[in-house]
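Comment thread on ticket #2218

A.B. wrote:
> Attaching the input chain for the structure job we discussed in standup.
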Amino acid sequence: MTASQESPGSVSVPPAWVRRPATLAKAVTAELVERIVRGVHPSGTPLPPEPVLCETFSVSRTVVREAVKILQEKGLVQVRQGAGTMVTPSTMWDMLDELVLAATIDMDESLGILDDLVVTRRLLESDMANLAARVAGEDTFERLRTLVDRMDELVDDHVAYADHDRAFHDTIMQASGNRIARGVVRALEGQVINTARYMGKTERALCVASNRGHRRIYERIAAHDPDGAAEAMFTHITEAWLVRRSASSTPVRLQR
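C.D. wrote:
> Ran it. Output below, let me know if you need it in another format.
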């Protein structure tokens, strides 16, 4: 039955975009994030005006305004009186935001953003390993030893190995008691865990080498050696990343 054929008592169903403005705003936001990161809308230039964005995405002004509000929260735009909505410099972007980080990684052929991510993770996890060696108890030592021994058995199954690898690192982070640092590392890892550029190669020999690093970290924590644990974590994360990114010919920017 068409709208003109509906009976007087029937209730017409509103279009999908009317029923799901929040979902549409998120979709428009995601597309605009990608366009800004790609340089379609460069820093220092205005976004297209509202009517143009409405026509481009076939949405209402309400949806566009909500999308712009979200972009502001992510640090990608500023609304200036008389100048419109201006795209901000990349230094103002929220790099912990899921959409911003994912789009930046996709566009960064140099892998520099992943180098920065690894440096951040390395600093935080080294400090947490130091803390774990100071405060962890027998339950943590046993958990780490069990994980390391099990990973030795899983070097031919890179998927299961990766699951245990993450559990090993998370056990140390939890033992440190630093919930903020753990939250940052987990947020960063969560954005790139399924990214081929970050995960790199998965050969058996690489798992074997990786677990030697895990065992060294475990041994230093179990020995209550804070400095040794921090150094072992620093070395492990550095070496593991250098191996994973070795297929790229771009220079490495890892700084101590």
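A.B. wrote:
> Thanks. Noting for the ticket: The beta strands are 77-80, 84-87.
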